[in-house]
Write a structure and sequence with these properties.
Number of strands: 0
Number of helices: 9
CATH class: Mainly Alpha
Helix content: over 70%
Distance between the termini: 31 Å
Structural class: mainly alpha
Largest sheet: none
Shape: globular
CATH topology: Rhopdopsin 7-helix transmembrane proteins
CATH architecture: Up-down Bundle
Radius of gyration: 18 Å
Number of domains: 1
Order of helices and strands: HHHHHHHHH
């Protein structure tokens, strides 16, 4: 993503993650904790390190590699937290599905640890080459993003049916809708990254038009996260949202 798009996305994720973690601290709710942790590591911490590695070319290649590895580790921690959120929110009472999401979380942490090990022993150019390792990691993260988005849209459809009978509220429905749009944005960005890797052998920065699209998708996703979990009062009054 461009610097402006990445900065906007990172700021929205930081604000939302802080709100959710503070909420989890008060309520001791694990879904809020996992969700806030995922936003912080994948949407803020990891993105900052990615920008440092990819944008500051004057840095020593080993420093850029270490920054990239730290960003990847943060990204995989975020993936693990997202998988655990889905497990807590949608599959807690389903033993098989619960075990699948727990396995995805464990695998994400393992892959992230491998990335850190590679980052310590390689330079930046070696890490960004379109190798089978890189493509596996990218496809794995894309699959996880698809699973999270699909589960959110399924929840949205369920809440739409429930609202007819007064079993849920407009506020909850709107929150799930906005979060579903945000997670779909993450899927789109991953797919764009796969496209540039397979077609050009390079990341999003290799195609200015694709990077522009990814940046705008990131901004829209960030705004949706903000409106879903920390909306301004005018939005709550006008459309319904998460009060506060």
């Amino acid at each position: 993503m461009s610097f402006v798009g990445a900065a906007a996305f990172a700021i929205f994720n930081l604000l939302v993650s802080a709100r959710l973690v503070l909420l989890a601290r008060r309520t001791r709710g694990r879904p809020e904790l996992f969700l806030g942790t995922g936003f912080f590591f994948s949407g803020f911490f990891g993105l900052v390190f990615f920008q440092v590695a990819g944008s500051i070319e004057v840095l020593d290649p080993r420093v850029r590699a270490a920054s990239l590895a730290a960003g990847l580790l943060a990204l995989y921690i975020g993936v693990a937290a997202s998988a655990l959120f889905v497990r807590e929110a949608y599959a807690r009472a389903k033993p098989v599905a619960s075990a699948v999401y727990a396995t995805i979380a464990a695998l994400a942490v393992l892959v992230g640890a491998v990335e850190v090990g590679l980052g310590v022993h390689n330079d930046y150019d070696a890490l960004v080459m379109p190798t089978p390792r890189l493509m596996f990691g990218l496809c794995f993260r894309t699959l996880c993003a698809v699973i999270v988005a699909e589960r959110n849209w399924a929840a949205y459809r369920a809440f739409r049916r429930q609202i007819v009978f007064g079993l849920t509220t407009k506020e909850v429905l709107n929150r799930v809708l906005l979060y579903s749009v945000a997670t779909t944005g993450a899927v789109v960005i991953h797919l764009l990254s796969i496209y540039t890797r397979f077609s050009m052998g390079m990341g999003l920065r290799g195609d200015g038009d694709v990077m522009t699209v990814a940046s705008w998708v990131g901004v829209v996703s960030g705004v949706c996260l903000w409106l879903a979990f920390s909306p301004p009062r005018w939005f709550v009054r006008r459309f319904g949202g998460v009060g506060g």
